[in-house]
Design brief:
- Two copies of one chain form a homodimer.
- By secondary structure, chain A is an alpha/beta fold.
- Chain A has two domains: 17-254, Type I PLP-dependent aspartate aminotransferase-like (Major domain) (Aspartate Aminotransferase, domain 2, 3-Layer(aba) Sandwich); 256-378, Aspartate Aminotransferase, domain 1 (Alpha-Beta Complex).
- In chain A, 41% of the residues lie in helices and 15% in strands.
- Chain A is built from 13 helices and 14 strands.
- Chain A has helices at residues 16-23, 32-49, 62-73, 87-98, 116-126, 146-155, 175-178, 221-229, 239-255, 257-277, 306-314, 343-356, 365-378, and strands spanning 5-6, 54-59, 79-84, 102-107, 130-134, 136-137, 142-143, 159-163, 182-186, 197-202, 292-296, 316-317, 319-320, 329-333.
- Chain A has a seven-stranded mixed sheet with strand order 2-10-9-8-5-3-4, sandwiched between helices. The first copy, chain A, has a three-stranded antiparallel sheet with strand order 11-14-13, with helices on one face. Chain A has a two-stranded parallel sheet with strand order 1-12.
- Chain A is globular and about 65 Å long.
- Chain A starts with a strand and ends in a 6-residue tail after the last helix.
- The interface between A and B is large, with 53 and 53 residues.
Chain lengths: 384, 384
């Protein structure tokens, strides 16, 4: 039996400190302890989103938070522009259609990023009321230039909504400075906690884009805000998960947010070095995310069952491709508690499996390259 | 510092076995381990709901599951009959209004139950497409006769939807035999687990009452069913919480569901005995639930801050009243892992506080009455 190590791009590894925090006490959500926990998470997440706006907490997965934003900002027949380059970008479009928006989909191939001039043309043509973005496209491993894209959206008067699920506490994100109105994340990504809590950051100026109350609903931001102002939530929250989030915020603050971003960048650089040394290609055409490394599976060797075998024989859980990318890519997550050194055994195990299946490399190729990258990163004055 | 003991009617105490189960392993929801966990929970909940129907699992609080049912069965302008005798009954009406139903509210005072003849008249008048019920009205402590009410609804051709949040694994409930189409519960009630997972049981015949797919949505039962048929869920589930639910189902099966119901009945009887001996009245006018004992606060003594003081000085967390019942009742939960003997210190602490505030009783009155009730329950041949 292996104690499974999670190198998936969410849910991610939950360090023992967060697991213990989640179960070491019980509380009721109508209590002073919960108020304290609420406020600690509220201010901690304001720092991570880099916003002075309000953080709404939902008992939901990340998709629930996405639907909540759509339910609260999209009115029927609103023109919305969705930038999609993978599964999660397209999810915004699906949700907006369900809420009967007039959806203009600006789509580029999976793994690609967006050309700012083309996006500006799309904005000029559509004059959308809302613009939907994805920061890290978890299905492809690409990171999108939200800063530039949000500025364009703002320029054309659109509400800017960003899926920052896999980028919060992973990559630099500056909600207020970049002009993002709504951003969402969940507990089981950079927050290193169990899945079950989702968060929506609402910019101070963004409230005027929230629809008037449509009656009682689980997603209703007016109800959520009224509770948040009283340091609580309207429905029973996943308290054990929120205790873990509180502990994760402590850990992130102790390490320093900039240092956390740098660690993710180093992990990503080290992982990419190993992949490159094996002669494998990254899936994203440019701008690979620091959250995960999506690797194109080689066509020369048999790769069926690779992800499962990595788990059964070596105890590492990585992710395969989703939807149309199933069987075409492997996604190695390095989110949250992962350190660059911890990635060496994962890539070495992957190397072993590929060698068995006929990849022509000397054993240790990946780890040697990774150690080299680490060494370069450590030496002062050299490029990381 | 007290290790807080939860005697609230949800969230409830989480035994160490369930807490440990929740954190002792990590898994991804696209994995054979998760398939196993899904199927274990699915069959376990089928037993608890007493249905051959399908169990849908949602990352949500109980209210999320309620909204999910409404979103999936209520079409605009559908006539719905809602039976309400407290906060949670009225919640069905609020949700149905949000989904633009023509809501007929059959309301009785908080704490009362329903007269079958009056309900039948309401059904005859309204001829509703759907009937919404509450099994245990957690805000008042009354249990409603779902068996009779569901049969009436069925007779008049209505879809029968029951909130069984606080009754599953607490009071007898027989979904298929009673003719209930949809029933909902959540992880943090009789399932003794952290909050964060909600469950909807859908009777086999009930699928014809589910609206055709309205597009991609977090609540969409068609999407949830397609995943359930493959032993998984569409969105990242609260896996740690589900491991706890799995452990809770093991514990419930080991004890025996009938024995679990009997234990709750004994706890309730013992708690009521203590309350009665203190000269206090139950809030429900009839049919007090076995999930919680709602006690009318005496008018003769000062009761402000009573719930908070019980927590600070004695470490017991009970609940006050909600909404209009705030300051008027105290609710002592005896759901899940609670045993009759564990209630003695709680009622004794409450007794101490009331004595200090001027209640005229001999110290030990509550516990003596509770011990007497326990004794009667233990003796074979005597009434429990």
């Amino acid at each position: 039996m292996h104690d499974v190590a999670m190198f998936t791009p969410g849910p991610t590894h939950i360090p023992l400190a967060m697991r213990m925090a989640s179960i070491s006490r019980l509380t009721h959500h109508r209590s002073p302890e919960f108020t304290k926990l609420h406020d600690r998470i509220h201010s901690g997440l304001q720092s991570l989103f880099a916003t002075g706006g309000r953080i709404l907490m939902l008992p939901a997965s990340g998709t629930g938070a996405m639907e909540a934003v759509v339910a609260n900002v999209v009115e029927p027949d609103d023109t919305v522009l969705v930038l999609a380059a993978g599964k999660y970008g397209r999810r915004w479009a699906e949700l907006c259609r369900t809420y009967r928006a007039d959806v203009r989909l600006h789509e580029v191939p999976d793994g690609a990023t967006f050309d700012a001039a083309a996006v500006e043309r799309a904005l000029r043509d559509a004059r959308p009321r809302h613009l939907f973005l994805t920061h890290c496209e978890t299905s492809t491993g690409a990171v999108h230039d939200v800063r530039t894209l949000a500025a364009l959206g703002r320029e054309y008067g659109a509400t800017v909504v960003a899926d920052t699920m896999t980028s919060i506490a992973v990559e630099p994100f500056h909600m207020d400075d970049w002009g993002v109105d709504f951003a969402v994340t969940a507990s089981h990504k950079g927050l290193m906690s169990p899945p079950g809590a989702a968060f929506v950051a609402v910019g101070d100026q963004a409230w005027e884009r929230v629809r008037p109350a449509q009656g009682y609903s689980y997603w209703n931001f007016h109800i959520l805000r009224a509770s948040a102002l009283e340091s609580t939530v309207p429905n029973t929250p996943p308290t054990t998960t929120l205790f873990a989030v509180g502990a994760a915020l402590d850990a992130i603050e102790a390490e320093g947010l900039t240092q956390v971003w740098e660690r993710h960048a180093r992990s990503a650089a080290v992982c990419r070095a190993g992949v490159g040394a094996l002669g494998l290609e990254l899936f994203p055409r440019s701008a690979p995310s620091n959250a995960l490394t999506a690797v194109r599976l080689p066509e020369r060797v048999r790769t069926d069952g690779l992800v499962e075998e990595l788990h059964h024989r070596f105890g590492f859980r990585v992710a395969g491709g989703q939807g149309g990318l199933k069987g075409r890519i492997v996604r190695v997550g390095h989110i949250g508690a992962v350190t660059p050194l911890q990635l060496m055994p994962v890539l070495t195990a992957l190397e072993m499996l590929l060698l068995e299946r006929g990849l022509d490399r000397r054993p240790g190729t990946a780890s040697a390259a990774m150690a080299g990258e680490l060494w370069d990163g450590l030496a002062p004055g050299r490029a990381a």
